[in-house]
Amino acid sequence: MKKTQQKIVKTAIQLFNKNGVANVRVQDIAVATNISPGNLTYHYKTKKDLMVAVLHYMKSLQKEMFPYQSIIEAPNWIKVVQTYLRFQIQFRFFYRDILEISNLVPESKKQYGKQIERVIEYSKNGIYLSVDKGFMVPEPHEHHYKILATNSWAILNSWLTVREVLGKEVANIHRGINGLLELNYPYFTEKGKEFYHKIKAQIPELVESEINLVEEMMD
Fold it and tell me: Does domain 66-218 have CATH number 2.40.50.690?
């Protein structure tokens, strides 16, 4: 991606996050990028073309941030959750405006679906690892832990929308991480409960800098 194209894409993301995809025109992006509309349409003829580039940029960054092919160890749990939430914040327009985006770029439905599948699979693999390591009890019955992983995704996927609607006092990263811990608590072994209490005590310190970063990104 050329320097000007990257600048256009990053500016578009900022405006989409702030104002919503439906409320942002190509002319608005050109003004915010400090280039002429003609220069912008030279690189991206339509809003759809620009959105395709934005989604491609999002996908490439996602691959860098999330090693989905690996399975996380318990000490990395907080870091993985923080990274995912940060990614959500950076591209919050995608989760909030997915219906609008899919109308503009129908192929985005497949990208959205694959992302959901990857997150759920990654979470499920983490649960099975926790079972192997003695942190969680064996699966009560077949496919139960996939449902648990799906519910974990639901918490991660919904907290940001709730935050934007009801405010940071109601939904912040601290509460998001705590919600995941509590969801998994009934399945913890004694060893897992030791991990739970350790992480619970560390959450305020671990997420303080992350919360500050979130506030900056949301401005």
Answer: no
Residue type (1 letter), 201: A
- For 82-115, how does the pLDDT look when each residue is reduced to its tens digit (9 = 90+)? 777 778 888 989 988 999 999 999 999 998 998 8
The 10 Å CB-count burial string (b at 16+, else e) for 80-101 is bbbebbbbbbbbbbbbbbeebb
Strand ranges for the chain from DSSP E: none
Question: Selecting from 1.10.1740.10, 3.65.10.10, 3.40.50.300, 1.10.10.60, what CATH number does the domain 1-54 have?
Answer: 1.10.10.60
For tokens 């989604």, what's the residue?
Answer: 55
Instruction: State the number of CA atoms in the 13 A half-sphere of 126 facing the CB.
Output: 24
What's the count of helices (H) and strands (E) in the chain, helices before strands?
A: 11, 0
Dihedral (CA of 96, 97, 102, 105) sign:
negative
Closest CA to 94 of 161, 187, 32: 161
Q: Are 64 and 90 contacting, i.e. CB atoms less than 8 angstroms apart?
A: no
Element of type H or E holding 29? helix 26-33
Strand partners, 188: 136
Pinpoint the residues of the chain covered by CATH 1.10.357.10. 66-218
The whole-angstrom separation of Cα 132 and Cα 126 is 10
- Prediction pTM value: 0.79
Q: How far apart are CA 17 and CA 20, in angstroms?
A: 6
DSSP 153-166: HHHHHHHHHHHHHH
